[in-house]
Amino acid sequence: MPTNLYGPGDNFDLNSSHVMPALIRKAHEAKLSGAPSITVWGTGTPRREFLHVDDCADACVHLMKTHSEAGHVNIGSGEDITILDLTRLVCDVVGFEGEIVHDLTKPDGTPRKLMSADKLRATGWAPKIGLEEGVASVYQWFLANKA
Predict the structure, then answer these.
(1) What is the pTM of this model?
(2) Strand (E) positions, 43-131?
């Protein structure tokens, strides 16, 4: 069972994408237009876990080689980040220096979504791509393919 995945080839449509590609696109467009701010839904306090798709693929291959027990295995980083901190990280990577504004008329959603990755970690696997490095690589892909 994978956590929130992100990576190259993601859906960057602001109406139908997930939080990571939406933030990348919002920050990019705000930077290009010289906008003074970007808006995020809610308070920014909910926490989410993210994993780069390449790490997910690596974990799947690892599990196929090392795991044969019944039941599912969570595939995740085992770490989470607030939406506000994720927004700040994306803005830093993209180079957007404006303000982050909260639309408090929009919902926060579930306060925290973090899976236990203990079973996966017990097999000796750990993610290789840090969040900042992953966001930077996805932004480069976005620039080359979508921008």
Answers:
(1) 0.94
(2) 47-52, 80-82, 99-103, 112-113
